[in-house]
Amino acid sequence: MANQDLELEQLDFKTAFLHGRLEENILMKQPEGFEVQEKERYVCQLQRSLYGLKQSPRQWYMRFDSFITNQGFKRSLYDCCAYHNKVEDGSMIYLLLYIDDMLIATKRMCDIQNLKILLSGEFDMKDLGATKKILGMEIYRDKTQKRLFLSQKDYIQKILVRFGMADSKPISTPLSEKEKLSAMIKVQAQAYQDYMSKVPYPSVVGSLM
Asked: Which of 66, 73, 94, 99 is the most exposed place for a label (fewest CB within 10 A)?
């Protein structure tokens, strides 16, 4: 929960990777059904990045980074996909980019609208309006109390279902009080070792992280 009076809007870049400009010479076979007669063995030189190219994500980011920094935005020292800038009233506007999704946060809606106009003049975008969910996080607003809540309830429920723990009962401690841990290393029964080998512990930890 945060005690903030912020406006949050979300944008989606259409075909983001197609905006990238290639720096290398990349050749490809003629697309099936579009071969030039009597030149079927010729290859095409790509002029723009395409989905599936290893270079595409990087070229898209470089294109966006170059554009937004030329507009006065500064890249965060701690996250290369977070940008910030001061607006007319001296407050800050924040721009967070995740592949082709963008979150804009600032105090005044007019500053968000100005940024949308700026971006739409350079990129093909879809305006998703007020942010309710992004990257698996639900966002709840209580403007009367100037409070903002973040939740990952749906994501946690999906994890519980995936690992067969949907009917588990919650406890207030990380480990059951009945568990007895021993510092002594003992050879476990083969049946127990076989059981533990099938427990997806690394996957569970990775999902929580």
From this structure: 66
